[in-house]
Specification:
With about 325 residues, this protein is mostly helical. It has twelve helices and no strands. The chain has one domain: ABC transporter involved in vitamin B12 uptake, BtuC, CATH 1.10.3470. The chain starts with a helix and ends in a 10-residue tail after the last helix.
């Protein structure tokens, strides 16, 4: 009997069931408290479209977080890549929007990874500096847009990723690509190995520095996809300064925490997707109850910590490098 329970708890379907029950619980809880402002079919569609954007970023975050690294420049990259995509869309339409977001995001990942590798200082410190640099570049890109509507997607003919089905198509492709990378490539295997024990990974012959750089590149490639979905959904992007972009870091990171916590079930990507949806349900449920933003952030963060703590008991956390 005991062995059966242990096997059940290690089963991937058990992990998915736990996540779905969490989502159902929070939906029911807020639906009862605010039946007129929360949880209708139309609103659930809106919640899902918002959460898949964060889930794409969360998939990218997973590659570095599982190794104990962190990147504060994610939000700044989203802003800069979005603005570059909008600017190029003025001249090249969809191709400019798509490749502007993805190429800009990926190049920033290359730069971040190489800089972190060469400076050999904690990733948190490196990426705070990079965040300020990228915010400055974003404000410069705005000055290059002479359309009169800087940062705005004014052409109605390039808004396919603003709504279903194409925003879902892009997100699903990103999720499947993450699954493929984690299950069937060296980068997925080695990221987990480095996160488990970097010293042992080096002794096994893994080029740790190389795969950390690749992890940063993958992170920012997915951030480029997130930028494409974000700027399309909002029909534009505003440039910011003074670390204001940092706020965009944390919602994707929340989904990544779910992925790390549930990776023992072999379902990190599924956990990220459902986890982001749970976070979106909580956030919008509190908004429906007219809870002040400061309390909303406090409750959302507290619930996240409790969920991750309960699902990841006994696991040792990685040191942020």
């Amino acid at each position: 009997m005991g062995n059966t329970i242990v096997k059940l708890k290690s089963n991937r379907f058990f992990g998915i069931a736990v996540l779905l029950l969490m989502a159902l619980f929070f939906w029911g809880f807020f639906r009862i408290l605010s039946p007129d402002n929360f949880g209708s079919g139309k609103l659930m569609g809106s919640y899902l479209q918002t959460s898949i954007q964060y889930a794409v970023g969360g998939c990218g975050f997973y590659f570095i977080v599982v190794m104990g690294l962190f990147d504060f420049s994610i939000g700044a990259n989203i802003v800069l890549s979005s603005l570059v995509g909008v600017l190029l869309s003025r001249y090249f339409g969809y191709l400019g929007l798509i490749f502007g977001c993805l190429l800009c995001g990926t190049l920033i990942g290359v730069f971040n990874g190489v800089l972190y590798s060469k400076l050999r200082i904690p990733s948190m410190i490196v990426t705070v500096g990079l965040m300020l640099i990228l915010e400055s570049f974003a404000n410069y890109v705005v000055t290059l847009d002479t359309s009169g509507f800087p940062g705005k997607l004014t052409d109605p003919n390039i808004l396919a990723f603003n709504h279903a089905p194409w925003n879902y198509v892009v997100a699903i492709i990103a999720f499947l690509l993450t699954v493929f990378l984690l299950r069937y490539t060296k980068i997925g295997t080695y990221c987990n190995a480095i996160g488990s024990n970097e010293y042992v990974a080096k002794n096994m012959g893994i080029n740790v520095e190389k795969y950390k750089i690749l992890a940063f590149v993958l992170l920012h490639f997915f951030v480029g996809i997130m930028a494409l979905l974000t700027v399309s959904y909002g029909k534009g992007m505003l440039a910011v300064t003074g670390m204001a972009s940092m706020d965009r870091n944390f919602k994707p990171l929340m989904g990544t925490f779910f992925g790390v916590a549930f990776k023992k079930y072999g379902t990190p990507v599924t956990a990220i997707v459902i986890g982001e949806f749970i976070i979106t349900l909580i956030f919008n449920g509190l908004v429906a109850l007219n809870v002040p933003t400061t309390i909303n952030d406090f409750v959302t963060g507290a619930v996240l910590l409790i969920i991750v703590a309960l699902t990841n008991r006994g696991a040792r956390g990685s040191v942020v490098k």
